Amino acid sequence: MRISSFKRAIIAGAVLLFPYDIGTGDAEAQNYIINYGKKLANGKTCRVVLGETHYHAANGAHSRKARAKAMAIADWSSFVVFEYGNKWGRWSHADKKSTKCMRDKAAGVWRCRAVGQPCL
Questions:
Q1: Could you tell me the pTM of the whole model?
Q2: First and final C-alpha spacing in the chain
Q3: Any idea where the domains of the chain sit in the sequence?
Q4: In terms of DSSP H, where are the helices of 1-120?
Q5: Starting from the edge strand earliest in sequence, which strands make up the sheet with 52-53, in order?
Q6: Which of 40, 100, 103, 110 has its CA 20 to 30 A from that of 8?
Q7: Cβ–Cβ under 8 Å, residues 110 and 63
Q8: Are 68 and 62 contacting, i.e. CB atoms less than 8 angstroms apart?
Q9: pLDDT, tens only, 27-51
Q10: 55-117: what fold?
Q11: Tens digits of per-residue pLDDT, 65-78?
C-alpha cells in the first residue's frame, strides 16, 4: 500500500508530538498513542481529539445509589472499550473522572452519571 506524502507528514508530526518507547507495550496500544493519545504530566496517556481533552459520559439507574453508580461506571467502561479497545476502558485509569448521583423520587431510583477521560 502506498502512503501519500501528506499522510507521511502527519505520521511524522504525530511521532514528534507524541514520543513513546517502541520497546514497551504492544503495537495496538502504541498505534493509539501515536494517533490519539496525549501524555499527561501525571504519566498517563489519555485520549484526545484534535488536540483537545476528550471525555465520555455514561448513566446508570437503580433503587440503590451504590448500584446506580456502579452501573454508570460499567456503562462508561463498556462504551469506551467498544470505541477504543480494552486498554482504554479501565475506569481506574481514567483522568478527570467524576460521578454524580441524584435521587429521582418520581421513579423511585437513583440516577448516576460517570464522566471521565479514557487513559492508559
A1: 0.68
A2: 30
A3: 5-49, 55-117
A4: 5-17, 27-36, 65-84
A5: 37-39, 45-49, 52-53
A6: 40
A7: yes
A8: yes
A9: 665 555 555 667 776 788 888 877 7
A10: Endonuclease I-creI (3.10.28)
A11: 999 999 999 999 99
